[in-house]
Request: fold
Amino acid sequence: MAPLPEPPARTHISLPMVEDLRSSLETSELLTPEADAYRVKIRRWAESSEKQAGAILLASSPADISTTLLFAQSHGIDFAVCGGGHSTSGSSSSTGGIVIDLSAMRSVHVDPSMRTITAQGGCLWADVDAAAAEHGLATVGGTINHTGIGGLTLGGGYGWLSGQYGLVIDNLISIEMILANGRSIKASATENADLFWAVRGAGQSFGVATSFTYRAYEQSSPVFAGTLTFDPLGSPDKIPQVLAFANNSIRAGQGHAACMLGFAVGPPPNSAPVLVCSPFFNGPEDQARAFFKPLLDLEPITNSAAMIPYSNVNGMFNAVAQHGGRKSTKGGAFAAPMRVEFLQSLFEKFCHFVTEVPDARDSLLLMEFFSPNKVCEVDNRAMSFANRDHYNNILANPQWKDEANDGRCRQWARDITTMIRKELEACKTDGRIGSKMEGVGTYGNYEGDVASEEKGRTIFGANYDRLIELKKRFDPSNAFGKGHLLSPQFDGK
Reply:
């Protein structure tokens, strides 16, 4: 198969170019470095992903996005698209080029009779959750509510409701986007179906998504959720006890219950590594407490679990995922039941890392114990997303402040996920997962490194070749070469 064309050599935007573009815009604002709002708009979730753009388009309409895309390509100017700004690869930033910032496009329309939610491309999940809750509805969304809906949706999208309703893309009814040729296009199962297949998993590589319409579900009742912490250093028995519950919860919860386990460094004065467990139960409190009783009886050192509105659930982790500081993300997968020895080895690696690199004590290692059954009802060929199988995600999220530690922190994430991949391979031979595993075992939204052809083939598996053919059809010049993993030549600049 012929490779994608190398992205055109791109340059910085000059002041005369800024004025030319500005005069062509209808309603959007174009910021340059001297503008007061510029410093705010180049900020990203991870400081290590911030770059000094030559200009920032505060987009307010699809028409101005189209104008900017065509202008950038005709002048050979680098461009990037920013929704929530959570990418740790730097793909939502540009050095000297144009950033198409969608943060001014955040309206949400809920149709209670049709049970649909239509949200503009710059929305955060908090916007969607709050608007849906006003009508007693909810949809599958990200577990960090200041994440943009665009990146999470276009890359797949797991959430607390995935056990009941599948992935975010399984609940995407339609999408509107601006293609590289400036055309605004709608894609759904019945309209531009090839494009709809591609964007559900690899959407960042095909255009700028300006609107999403999701399927919604009745969610008028509160849910049981919160965070428990345990001291595995002072009480080593906590790891096997908590893990035994988590392993069983995947099957016993029948999609209505889930939990997330993780390792973090606790607050002062001890500031010691802790085991974190976040339970979730979509049902009455008495049933929730009965379900989680074995966990609650383990006497956690902290316990915030309570009945809360669903619209608050995706904000539970915001405190440990704040903007600022340097960050990276790297993903893997595990098959349940997870071995106690393996979880203990992950804990040991985490402890060693935060001890050897004290600057990285805000780092996290998280494991999602969600039922995969609903996700696996959809075939891996049904859309470009290829990570469906009877396993769950693990996220390695090193967080640090000193640029001098960039290499050590990113290498830790690579090393720990290599270890996780080896364990998943071992699961094929010990019966925990079929030897003919169909899913790729890598969630693209957790892959925070810059793009490469090898990574693209890893994440999209058997769907990769079809994606490349569709990429040539919808973006033949590879204008969206910073998108998710379909540009072997992208260098991250």
Confidence is low (pLDDT under 50) at residues 488-493. Residues 406-430 form the longest helix (25 residues). The CA atoms of residues 440 and 458 lie 7 Å apart. The two ends are 26 Å apart (CA to CA).
